[in-house]
Design goal:
Ribosomal protein S18 acetylase RimI-like enzyme; 9 strands; Aminopeptidase; 5 helices; about 30% helix; alpha+beta
């Protein structure tokens, strides 16, 4: 089942036919924002959507038949988990096509992740890592109730890049979600 989001956007699990667009969007977002150079080793991690989909859950937001955003969901102990602790859903690599940024797609995706997490047995929180320079993302997370967890911040191994951890406790309310 697909989830209707603002501006006729739906969120669904990615299928292999989506992988080229997920790769393009993620690459474009990181390059255009100046986060990494094209030859940075992390760019190959972002580009390997097939591996990600094999070891985590890759989701896409779609509008008018086109993939406009992608995100990866993972849990503690799984290969793509960087910071998730027991009872946490971690999301990573949230990327909204630059042509659709500012339209509410990213906000809608994160809200649906929150609703989805509330439906998962044993999940009591959501965590996300964000580089200190990703200020726009920080504003989005804070506006949706995420709080910094500075005691969990960490550095990228071998680099002088500090990563901040944001966390949202889910409390006892059970918001409905129809992610599949």
């Amino acid at each position: 089942m697909n989830v209707a989001l603002p501006a006729t956007v739906t969120l669904r699990r990615a299928v292999p036919a989506d992988f080229p667009e997920v790769r393009r969007i993620t690459r474009d977002v990181y390059l255009q924002a100046g986060h990494f150079a094209a030859d940075h080793p992390y760019m190959s991690v972002l580009a390997d959507v097939e591996h990600r989909a094999e070891h985590a859950e890759v989701w896409v937001a779609e509008a008018a038949g086109k993939v406009v955003a992608a995100v990866t969901l993972t849990f503690a102990g799984q290969p793509y988990s960087e910071i998730a602790q027991d009872g946490e859903l971690e999301f990573r690599m949230l990327a909204v096509d630059p042509a659709h940024q500012g339209s509410g797609v990213g906000r809608a995706v994160v809200r649906e992740i929150v609703g989805h997490a509330r439906q998962l047995p044993g999940i009591v929180a959501i965590s996300i890592t964000s580089a200190t320079f990703m200020e726009r993302a920080h504003g989005l997370y804070r506006s949706l109730g995420f709080h910094r967890a500075p005691q969990r911040d960490w550095y990228v191994p071998g680099e002088d890049v500090l990563l901040w951890v944001f966390r949202l406790g889910l409390g006892s309310s059970a918001a409905a979600s129809t992610l599949t």
